[in-house]
């Protein structure tokens, strides 16, 4: 995941979208450990079923640069 985020930063992207099945806890933890923010859980729909996606998908946006946190 770090390499993907690093390459995306090199391309000038501010963030990357990572998706995984809702039940895939390992992938969810990996996305969250990389700084990913869960923004949506996409429900299964006809389009997804037609393309082999049979369970809800989590959408995580991961920033390509560290977020600075200032304590005041």
Total helix count? 3
Described by strand count, sense and barrel closure, the largest sheet is: 3 strands, antiparallel
Please give the order of strands in the largest beta sheet. Answer: 1-3-2
Low-confidence stretches: none
Protein name: GNAT family N-acetyltransferase
Organism: Tsukamurella asaccharolytica
Topology, pairings included?
Layout lengths: L1 H9 L4 E7 L3 H9 L3 E6 L3 H5 L6 E7 L9
Explain what this protein looks like in three dimensions:
This is GNAT family N-acetyltransferase. InterPro entries: Acyl_CoA_acyltransferase. There is one protein chain. The protein has one domain. By secondary structure, it is of the alpha+beta class. The termini are far apart. The chain contains 3 helices and 3 strands, in the order αβαβαβ. The longest helix is centred in the first third of the chain and has 9 residues, at 2-10. The chain has a 3-stranded antiparallel β-sheet with strand order 1-3-2. The chain is elongated, with a radius of gyration of 14 Å.
List keywords for this structure.
72 residues; alpha+beta; 3 helices; 28% strand
In short:
By secondary structure, the chain is α+β, with helices and mostly antiparallel strands. 32% of the residues lie in helices and 28% in strands. It has one domain (2-63).
């Amino acid at each position: 995941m770090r390499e993907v985020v690093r390459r995306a930063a090199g391309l000038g992207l501010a963030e990357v979208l990572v998706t995984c099945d809702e039940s895939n806890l390992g992938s969810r933890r990996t996305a969250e450990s990389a700084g990913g923010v869960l923004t949506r859980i996409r429900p299964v729909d006809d389009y997804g079923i037609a393309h082999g996606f049979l369970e809800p998908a989590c959408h995580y946006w991961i920033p390509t640069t560290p977020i600075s946190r200032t304590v005041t």
